[in-house]
Amino acid sequence: LQIEAELNRGIEQNNFVLVYQPQIDLQNKALLGVEALVRFYHPKYGLMSPLKFIPILEDTGIIIKIGEWILQTALKQLKKWQDEGLSIKHVAVNLSATQFRNKHLLESVKEALTMSGVAAEYLELELTESLLLEDTESAVRTLKQFKDMGIRVTIDDFGTGYSSLSYLRRFPVDSLKIDKSFIKGVVSEPEDIAITVATIDMAHALGLNVIAEGVENEEQRDFLRDHGCDCAQGYFYSPPINHEDFSKWATTYR
Ligand code: G
Ligand code: G
Ligand code: MN
Ligand code: NA
């Protein structure tokens, strides 16, 4: 209950911050986009992982309010970077199940775009596979509305959920993000290699982009690039960092 109250006050107390991680085009090495990830600094206990506090935000419904703050903050930051002349093609924002099911989702996304002055094509939403499979009919409807608005959608943590190919065909999404658990063994474990290569080929056969997350070294980067993966994200390039550090990173990258 205490933690609930603290999370609930988190925006006003400036205890939530966003950190940003670059996404790199594997074929030309250019900075392509950035993923925004939320952090919570507990007034007493310090930094808390989203793995701990997102479930609490979800169960209490506080995620709706925080989710709107996350979207608005990420889009405003992208606008600043674009005004500073940084070439960033999109900001990716994670949506959780409660947000995705909320009937005001579309409205609040539109509002965040309007408030920030960012065009819809610069926003990418990351949704997990399992979230989409909860109610496929309504998921398809919501995804179509995003598509009509020009917003792009990525299936996050791909491969860890149910991964039905027939559903994948029905979802109007733009890209798949291969989960970091497969990238970990992508140069050494035959199963991870097989799954990663198959995912890249399948995504391309369906006209989708593929991004790999959790890229930590040159060997993984080279393997993914040589197997046609479009984009990469991970500690090899940069961990998630605050906006000031990201500005510095981006101006010195390359
Ligand atoms: O950022 P990591 O750095 O620790 O994130 C852990 C988990 O929390 C990931 O599964 C990630 O998708 C999720 N997460 C991080 N930021 C957000 C966010 O802004 N919204 C939602 N819904 N999930 C997030
Ligand atoms: O939203 P998603 O589930 O994709 O969250 C990404 C998670 O992966 C975050 O917790 C982020 O901090 C973490 N992450 C980002 N890059 C790396 C990496 O190179 N290695 C590992 N192990 N984790 C990473
Ligand atoms: Mn993500
Ligand atoms: Na992921």
Automatic annotation (TrEMBL):
Domain EAL: 1-254
GO MF terms held by the record: cyclic-guanylate-specific phosphodiesterase activity
GO BP field: regulation of DNA-templated transcription
Protein's UniProt name: cyclic-guanylate-specific phosphodiesterase
Record's keyword terms, sorted: c-di-GMP
Top-level taxon of the source organism: Bacteria
